[in-house]
Amino acid sequence: RGPAAGRAAHVETGSVYLGTSVQVAGLFPFMQASGLPAEGVPIGPDLLTHEMVCLDPPGWLGRLTNNPSIWVQGQPGVGKSAIAKRLCLGLVGYGYAMLCPGDVKGEYAGLVRALGGQVVRIGRGLDRINPLDSGPLGRLLPTLPEQRREILLAEVNGRRGELLHALLATAHGLGRRPVAQESAALNAAIRLAAADPATDPTIPDVIKVLREAPGPLLDRLMLRSHDEYLTEVRAIVAALENLCDGPLSGLFDGPTTTPLDLNAPAVSVDLSAILTAGDHVVAAGLLACWAYSYSAVDTARAFGVLARPVVLPLDELWRALRAGPGMVEAFDGITRLNRAKGEISLMITHSLRDLEALPTEEDRAKASGLMERCDTLILAAMPMSELTRISQRKPLTDAERELVASWASPTATGIDGTTQVHPGRGKYLIKIGQRIGVPVRLALTPTELELYHTDPAPRRQVSAS
Predict the structure, then answer these.
(1) 160: which of 31, 33, 358, 391 is 20 to 30 A away, CA to CA?
(2) Neighbours of 60 (CB within 10 A)
(3) H-helix or E-strand containing 234?
């Protein structure tokens, strides 16, 4: 009853009004954005206008975004992985390849298998990855002209050196970055171990070169005696052997057993088998798998083996960055190709406090830049203190902070065993550059509910009686 009540056969579209900055200055800051273009992966209805919200950062390059990377942050259990998987699923439908280079909990394996993809399980008695593997490039190097081969081999050896420097900085290595003389010895040993372009060196091969101390290695270091050489390399030899022994034994100390199939719709490198070995082991595993995966993509693209764009979800980001000093620089070097070639990295974490706890001031400053370079932010439920940290890097309005914070805590009912859904479950604020954020609700299909389920604990069924 009453004016405008009842059903309507047709709903008029909203009116758009334009005005100069002089006329509309009193309305700024605007309470509601004009909405995102209806392009890309459908996410769900806008919580305020109920229009469909879509997300297409790579398609918006040069218009709404300058970098296709996406930063996803929120409390545990509110749906960070769910929206990441929706994006991956949608982008695969648009012709992208999905590559999860380090699936710590094995939660992407179901989606990858459903897409007809490949799951590589890393663990003792399972698959093994050689982090020094050159990927598809290794099979093509011997067929190249000598000059071209030398150029590409130098680039690959540089990446190998970057990775070993990063692994040596972890707790299972030196616990620090190699000093100048150690670095020179390591780089020279990598080049000597990779002298045969038909085979990829392994970490034990590098150790063997360092132990044998061939003449070119001694000449490179300008040492006068074998005793001086032993003094310089003893620490890095022991550290490299630690990477092949103990908790990491059998994981990264030999040739790759199952190469990544970059022709598959989706690929996941599953690290769930080593999850119980501790954070330091998982961090080393993530670094090795990220380096191997990104190198495989880069070299495959350089040779025209991979023509499709790739989306790479990087979950549990904080685990690798906290592994030791210099990890942020190593991560930035490993993932740099997305900014040059349009690859999409989904960086997923639950708190900036993890980044603020990095061991050095240099690492903390560089980690802050990881989020600042992402033009697309997806913010799930989190407390106001965390939103304040984000605002120091990416400005948020008071209304945006209050909305996201309101999703963070369920209301207390005083009734044990309530079936009430967490208020922040499936709700996100999507912020593109400096635009007003768009609040959206993700509604999963029955198939997605089955594929995305990541809670291994059985949920208690509460009777309505």
Answers:
(1) 358
(2) 20
(3) helix 226-243
